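Protocol step 4 of 6: structure prediction from sequence.
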Amino acid sequence: MLDNLGMIGVSWKQGGTESLAEFTPPQDGLPERLLALARAHGLAELALISTCNRVELLFARKPGSGHEDLRPEIFEFLTRRAARPGEALRRLRAWQGEGAAERLFLIAAGLDSACIGETEIVGQVRNAHQMARQQGLAGTHLDLLFDEALRIAARVRGETALGRGRVSLAEIANEALRDRLERTKGQVALIGVSPMTERSAVGLAAAGQRFIVVNRTKAKAETLASRFGQPHLSLAEFLAEPPAIEAVLSATGAPGTVLDKAALERLAARTPSGEPPLVVDMAVPADIDGDDCRALGIPRIGMDAIVALADRNRAARLTEAAEAREQVDGALDQLQERLAEKLYGPLLGALQRRYQQTAEEGVRRLLKKDLGTLGEKERAAIEVWSQVLARRFAHIPCLGLRGLLHSGPEGSIDAFLDGLEPEFADELRQALSANGEARHDA
């Protein structure tokens, strides 16, 4: 049941975070392109997880659609160019079956992040699931996988030490902002409304720092800014007449540069301290060009630098992650059974109903006969007894089917027997063995 699952993508581990820009698909027309990708390659379900740490596609193939390696096709989908010979297999990673499920669980739990235990990833995984559902690309498999992944993430954060301390890339970026503002008093411009800027706003507000929220859509900027009683501007207003700020944190989903060289020059001319503003760019692809910053003498901290800071305490946090990893392993052990129950629960229910219907029909025929002095109380007792007996009879094949679905392969008598109670299974094995010996002697 897990054989049709697959996951293909790239993370910060291959070439750094800022190299992900090449693989980050533009938002324009993305739902239609995902639907076309699914139709073209026999994918029944498909979801895209795109963050500052990774761009990955999780999918479930249609039965009988084959198991060919889709990395060349997905490379072209993400980059909008055909891969050179061997390039897709070298630059993209692929997981199949239970490995794909494990990959999603590790991501959601924060165990495969640049900052072990990062908090933003949970919301990003949830958004990926919601987007797939809105596009009609999430079904039984992905619904179960995402639900399990989010359940694991909640348990990891509630029952282990992994979620304690500095576990957000935005928090690491905020340290750089706070250091700057302690030295040169002023305010920060948060550009974009995203999990990163929201987390940064929470940290800045808690530290008593002033900030202004900037977004292409002004209403979204107002919504975030109003939570903290801070001012807001549209991006167009900010670019036309930038306020006096000491630092910028930008994390938009724009496909290209948000602050060009001219905009940076205007910002640098208005800093209250007279120093060049600090630029923290958390966007992938980058919102602010590093060459422009270097040409103007503006200090810039990009995602690769933030990830490097997070990596310094990675080893220590991996020790804390051991218990979280146990949670993932436990969920994987139960996943096949949960999926079988979800996929075949209606079948088992129909089987039980058929047994009950058969019992009811038999009782009706029986009660039509002349049973002498049989009263209403006795007739009701017979009906109850027949229903109980039907449920008991239905229970036996249902247990066997669960064993078959859980242990497989399909058609295996041993797998069917493994689903039964040990004493009854042994009795059937003895009968099967005796029957086999009788056939052999004949």
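Step 5 (inspection) to follow. Confidence is low (pLDDT under 50) at residues 434-442.
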